[in-house]
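User: Some background: our group keeps a shared notebook of sequences we're curious about, and every so often someone picks one and asks for a predicted structure to add to the entry. Today it's my turn. The entry only has the sequence so far, pasted here. Could you supply the structure so I can complete it?
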Amino acid sequence: MSEKSKPSVLFVCVHNAGRSQMAAAWLTHLAGDRVEVRSAGSAPADSVNSAAVEAMREVGIDMSAQTPKILTIDTVRASDVCVTMGCGDTCPVFPGKRYLDWKLDDPAGRGVDAVRPIRDEIERRVRGLLAELGVQDSMTADTM
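Assistant: Of course. Here's the predicted structure to add to the notebook entry:
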């Protein structure tokens, strides 16, 4: 990542329907245009998990228009940080990239009540990532 460019983060899970979509939505919500945000899956689902969409809606984040996307080598190559969430060895590894593996429960097949704690843990981790990247979240920036 160069000094002049904004950091780029890629969130990857198998279906790109729950965890990675929520993480991308949180990062977009908190960082605005200060971080380039991507998400993808090694075997994308047909649609985003409806319980994940509802859980995010409860905190004021609308991700209903998002669609699962396929993970490509170019997507990984274009990202400074790759955060995997249960995709195993399917994420290509390139020298010079930062890789994080977040162990999170999969929201697939679960109701909103079960997805809320996953959503909240993802928010906590995304806020920590923002701090590590040296990017102030928009919630803090708006109060200054």
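Suggested note for the entry: The radius of gyration is 14 Å. The helical segments are 19-31, 50-58, 73-77, 112-133, 138-142.
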